[in-house]
Amino acid sequence: MARDDCQRIAVAENLLTIDGAFGEGGGQILRTAVGLAAAWGGGAGVRVVNIRANRPKPGLRPQHLAAVHAVAEVCDGRLDGASAGAGALTFRPGRPRAGQYRFDVGTAGSAILVLQTVLPALLAAEGDSEVVITGGTHNPFAPCFEYLRDVFIPLASAANAAMAVTLERAGFYPAGGGRIRCQVRGLGDRRHLGPLRLTSRGQVRRVEGISAAAESLPAHIVRRQRDRLLERLRQAGLAGDIEQARWPADSPGTVVFVRALFQRSLGGFFALGRRGKPAETVADEAADELLGFLASDGAVDPHAADQLITLLALAPGTSELTTTRITPHLLTNAEVVRRITGRQVVIEGEPDSPGKVILK
What we know:
This protein is 34% helix and 26% strand. By secondary structure, it is α/β, with parallel strands linked by helices. The longest helix is centred in the middle third of the chain and has 17 residues, at 219-235. Mean pLDDT is 94; it is low at 1-12.
């Protein structure tokens, strides 16, 4: 057999195929697959097929393309098939590189999800990095900026993942145009991440948050959101410190974000406004999420459980998290983690109920 033929077979055998239509079936399958492959090492590539096959607009959208191109740049990776609407792509990672990076989603697609895709590789890189991403910062299908800064990053720091983020401009749907800046401390090796054990949250210490809107909207909207949230907190016997803010933005939009800090953990919840949606309804949605969390058992909120396992999959040792709700998103992400890393991920509990996640 010719040498070139042998090399082609070796490459084919070093590709892991991931079905992008299984489980929850969204873009997170793709982002987790390429993000972990870039950070895991060993040179193994992934082929993701049936990308978002069950979505109304299947295939790669601008947000997903931005994420995979970003992670390929960070690790000198090779992408095949990464084009708008494509249902499959192949990613062969190189070695993660620290550096100065700028990425543009080009739409109101989430800048936060692009950042979370490249974070595993940047944490595994040797040296510190700075990333500037333009796109949506407050997107209904992704964590908002405040959740990233005030929930995900503090929790991840307990696993030795050091990051700092700044909101330089808010980006609401449909124009986007927001900008975030993130500094990441590279560890040189993914194994320098540490395991986490978050199984009980303890007593609530304080509640805080923000009511904000694009400055093109009337100031009374921000005030009404805040007043309603404070009213809901008082009714529940909670005191809260809620800031108000108005931001320059290319599109009008509003957000209410609230987090609860406990003795050993924290949780965050948010809601976004839109045309025709009363300010009080935005506040009620965020309050309902918070109060539902407080009424249930679990150390972290459902979004944190889903997002943290991607980082904890890189850390040696056993991690344990309890969450107030096992979501389809969590179950799907756990399966991708198993496939990419070979880690044993055990989820105890029933879907849509409290449960525990164990990474062995």
